[in-house]
Amino acid sequence: MRILLSTYGSRGDVEPLAALGAALQAHGVEARVSAPGDAEFAALLARAGVPLAPAFAPVREWAKEMINRSRSASPEDRARLIAGQATEIVARQYEALSAAAEGCDAVVAFGLFPSCAAARMVAEQRGMRYMLGTFCPIWLPSPHNRPHEYPSHPLPAGVTDNRLLWEMDIRTKNALFGEAINGQRASLGLPPVQNVRDYVYGKRVLLACDPTLGPWPGSDLIDAVQAGAFIQPDERPLPGALKAFLDAGPPRVYVGFGSISVASEAGHAAIEAIRARGLRTVIAQGWAGLGPIDDRDDCFAVGEVNQQALFGRVAAVIHHGGAGTTVAAARAGAAQVIVPQIGDQPYWARRVAELGIGAAHDGPVPTVKSLSAALEVALARKTRVHAAALAGKIRADGAEVAARLLIKSLGESSR
After folding, report:
1. Would you give the end-to-end CA distance of the chain in angstroms?
2. In terms of C-beta density within 10 A (0-12 exposed, 13-18 middle, 19 or more buried), how is residue 36 classed?
3. How many CB atoms lie under 10 A from the CB of residue 23?
4. The pTM of the whole model exceeds 0.90
5. Which helix (H) or strand (E) holds 292?
6. Are 78 and 142 contained in the same domain?
7. Distance of alpha carbon 343 from alpha carbon 196, whole angstroms
8. Could you tell me the residue range of the domain that residue 41 belongs to?
9. Which of 5, 61, 146, 377 has the fewest CB atoms within 10 Å, counting from its CB?
10. Which of 119, 112, 153 is nearest to 134 (CA)?
11. Are residues 140 and 120 located together in one domain of the fold?
12. How far apart, in whole angstroms, are the C-alpha atoms of residue 64 and residue 66?
């Protein structure tokens, strides 16, 4: 069997597919990953031994452009931007995935909705099996949670019936993505679909998140199976200079916002809040290019490093709340401060607070005062005890569980 794993997104979207691809290969399945061709993702997949089939464009500069264009736009303009970009992504990603799918029997799609729509069409055109995957339960229709709110398509105030809101979500996705998807279908000689959300979601969805961090209570609105988080083991040693910094002086706090283009003031506020507690900072440059604010020796800047090794050596992790960073910190037993920005990040912030393993920052713009308050919660003995205890509950076999599930379900669907 040959399976194409597809995504278009940041590292949090690509690294799990490296883990899943490696797990599939261990079962004798030929797996390849279609992902943005950024050098960091190519290196990541090479370490996992999984072939890369580049998506329609690298994502780092594309994401920066989208953020800049939407930053000062009105909700209506942001909605038009989403719809316009969907048209480009569906068309260009369809071409990229058509080439990547050569010789494959099935495609499993993660990432941006238009990218998954392109994967669904490639599967339909080629007679391949298809499954959608997601890294957070909030994206799945359920009476237990509300749908995501899109620009210019607010959820109506006062409506508490989540079933009704998910019915409205169908109309919202049709409005934002219907023209892009049905326009591409028309170019292929395919009939239009009336419900683009359910077309992209397909018959069954693979939920790739840890059941302790992000439990799935089940839903009669969709068939979803939870496999656990896809974690790729990382055996890389930490750089010598970083190890020396970790070994010397007071405890350290990690600060990193991954692919989120936060303002440099966020890094400044974090360093000052950490200093106020007599601690030292390990700051990840990330896509925002964060770094020390002066020449004092209590702050160490890092690029791309082994988070699995690093998080086990810090007192707390301040981050944006990406699914991958959240599970990595939880698995290491590190207390967390989440400063959520977009998407599913507020959900992970809330879960960290509910589990007692950290603090959810109130809003996306941190200050020295607000981070100091959040750090007080995260560094409290009670929080650290909870974080250490929960670490042993985080499953590391999600990719293996998913690989066996895919082999069984996709294999059965072909008979």
Report:
1. 13
2. buried
3. 25
4. yes
5. none
6. yes
7. 20
8. 2-231+396-413
9. 61
10. 112
11. yes
12. 5
